[in-house]
Amino acid sequence: MSAMIPLVFLVVATLCGTAIAYLVGGSAVIGFIISDNSNFLAALPQRVFSQLDVFAFLAMPLFILVGELMNRGGIADALIRFSLTILGRFKGGLGHVNILTSVFFAGVSGSATADAAALGNTLVPVMEKQGYHRNYAVAITAASSIIGPIIPPSIVLIFYGALMNTSVIALFAAGIVPGLLLAVMLMGINAFFAHKDNHPGGRDAEIPDFLPAFTHALPALSLPVIILSGILFGIMTPAEAAAMAAVVAALVGFLYRELKLVDVIAAARRTVILTGAIFVILVAIATFGYLSALEQIPQRLVASIAELGLGQTGYLLVVNLVLLVAGMLMDVKAAVALLAPLLVPPALLLGVDPTHMGILVGFNLTVGLLTPPFGAVLLILSTVTNVNYWVIVRAVVPFLIAELIFLGFLIFVPDISLALPRALGYLS
């Protein structure tokens, strides 16, 4: 009966609108008390600090700052014009441009919400003006924004790597192929709808001249090159690459004459607020993780899995279902911090590669950003574009189904994510 007390507290506090950090932290402290582990609370501050004193966490606020500077610095416009020169003449060309721009964005900010906000403001109105239905323009913007947290640098993968003691560089390398394959798949779906619904575009479409568009976009295009080459070839750590990218993003914004000092200050303020909120959650999660280790919860889960006879594949399917539901309801970083320490260790004991597991966790929770009732990308686009939330939900369903099928391929074919880091020598 006493074991129900933390659960009751969690439910009541949730219904009262309590923040996730207080939900988890309060439930964990109650759990310490009712499980006769209260004497271990004296060691809690040291335990929490040791879990947060991780160098990889330094890259996270810097990449958040990069995304904030990009949103304010006119970088989206430059990337859109350049993407138009490459794909603008295809049927449904602006849909392809939307996806390709998300790939470029992914190589800089690693944030689905930043991508959605930027392209919702810039590309959706352009697509509607060219003859696309607004609902479709918003849906493909939502679907393509999911590429952001998969292709490095990814804030979600940094988060996972630091929490689970997994190489962030290996995770970054593992995200490249799945992210690019996802982009190709979305382009295929866009091509289908372009011919089915007679979307604009084709050989007669008016597109910018390549050389001027490329020259204008070159400073923005340098950002992913700096980040990826620096990290993957061992020139810079993720934190150093993030710091370099933040400096370059600011310089590019000033070069485009879109970024002002007041914007830089606003971006820095927003970064501090987000980072503080994240670390409060991390403290709460570290408290829960300490209790979980004392009570041997992962080991108990493994024993239960063995009794059920699920095996590796069966367990992965169950875990991904849990993560998908969590992604519908929770912030992605909070869900990673709460669920990864609980669900990942049993998977590793069953033989799942930790890098592969990181890609599954990151992609699954990110897909949750497209799912009701609290899909963050859908909420952002509904606000930015003034399209009804449930209208967006209906429009995005075909893309969501395709991304769930793609998730299934990732589960059953680990080499999609592991081949590149293995080739680069980051995995044995």
TrEMBL record:
Pfam families: DctM
Cellular component aspect of the GO annotation: plasma membrane
Record-annotated TRAP C4-dicarboxylate transport system permease DctM subunit domain positions: 7-415
InterPro entries, sorted: DctM, TRAP_DctM
Localisation: Cell inner membrane
Membrane topology annotation: Multi-pass membrane protein
Swiss-Prot/TrEMBL keywords: Cell inner membrane, Cell membrane, Membrane, Transmembrane, Transmembrane helix, Transport
Primary location recorded for the protein, binned into one broad class: membrane
MF terms (GO), sorted A to Z: transmembrane transporter activity
Entry's transmembrane regions: 7-34, 54-71, 136-163, 169-193, 214-235, 241-259, 271-294, 314-344, 356-381, 387-413
PANTHER family to which the protein is assigned, alphabetical: SIALIC ACID TRAP TRANSPORTER PERMEASE PROTEIN SIAT-RELATED, TRAP TRANSPORTER LARGE PERMEASE PROTEIN
UniProt record similarity statement: Belongs to the TRAP transporter large permease family.
Subunit comment: The complex comprises the extracytoplasmic solute receptor protein and the two transmembrane proteins.
Biological role stated in the UniProt entry: Part of the tripartite ATP-independent periplasmic (TRAP) transport system.
Protein name in UniProt: TRAP transporter large permease protein
Species annotation: Sneathiella litorea
